Amino acid sequence: MNNYRSSEGEGSNVPPELHPLVEAAGRRGTLPEWAACRPERREHSARVAELMAVWSRDIGLPAVDRVRWVAAGHLHDALKDAPVEALRSLAGPDWPDPLLHAPACAARLEMDGVRDEELLLAIAHHSTGHPDLGALGECLYMADFLEPGRGYMTEERAELRGRMPAEHSEVLQAVIRHRMARLIDRGLSLRDESIQFWNRAVGS
Ligand SMILES: [Fe+2]
Ligand SMILES: [Fe+2]
C-alpha cells in the first residue's frame, strides 16, 4: 500500500467530504481507536497540528480544508509506536522499518473508508516527501521538522518557522536540504521519491 497518488492534483477547488475520523482529528484532536503512539508522540503531533492550523488560516483556506490540514498533523504519527510486523502488513514490503509508520497509517485510514487522496498521500510520505505532494503534504513535511519541540537546530528551525507560510517555496527547499543532509550525514540512502521531491522543489 504505497502508491498513493493525488487524484485531484494541485489547485483543485473541490475538497472531499470530511470522513468522521478526519473530522474527529481535525476538530477535536481525537485519534482513531487503533492509534498506537505514546503521550510524547501525541504532543509532537499536536504541535505539528498547531502549525498546520496557523499556516492554513494564514493562507486563507476554506474551513473544511483547515480541518483536513489540522487532521493531517494529529494523524500523521498515529501508528508510530505500533509493532513493526503490524506496520509491515499494512504498508507492504517496499519500506524500511523506520518509515513504515507513515504508509501504514495511510493504509489504515483508507481501510476505514478515508478517500481523501491528498491527505493519504501527505501522511504516507510525511517522512520522505513525494513529487506529487500538494500544499497540504508539503506543509506537513515542513511542520513535522519545524515544530518547536524538537531538540536540535533550535534557532535555524525557529527562523524557518517565522518565514512560514509567506516564503513557502524557500522554506520547503531549506527543510528538504536539512532533512536530506541529516540522512546523508548518518550514511543512509535517499529514496527515489525524496530525490524527485527535491528536484521538483528546485524546479528541475
Ligand atoms: Fe513520522
Ligand atoms: Fe512526526
Question: What can you tell me about this protein's structure?
Answer:
The protein is globular and about 35 Å long. The protein has helices at 20-28, 39-58, 63-75, 84-91, 101-111, 117-124, 135-146, 154-162, 168-185, 192-201. The protein has one domain (20-201): Hypothetical protein af1432. The protein is mainly α and 204 residues long. Mean pLDDT is 93; it is low at 1-13. Helix content is 58%, strand content 0%. Residues 76-77, 80, 101-102, 126-127 line the site of one fe (ii) ion.
Give descriptors for this structure.
10 helices, binds fe (ii) ion, Hypothetical protein af1432, 204 residues, mainly alpha, disordered N terminus, 58% helix
Arithmetic mean of pLDDT: 93
Q: Please name the CATH architecture.
A: Orthogonal Bundle
- Poorly predicted ranges (pLDDT <50, ≥5 residues)? 1-13
Number of domains: 1
Count of individual beta strands = 0
- CATH homologous superfamily heading: Hypothetical protein af1432
Category by helix and strand content: mainly alpha
Q: State the share of residues found in helices, binned by percent.
A: 55-70%
Largest sheet: none
- Rg calculated over all Cα atoms: 16 Å
Q: Under CATH, the topology is which? A: Hypothetical protein af1432
Question: If helices are DSSP runs of H or I spanning 4 or more residues, what is the number of helices?
Answer: 10
> Which band does the percent of strand residues land in?
under 5%
Identify the overall geometry.
globular
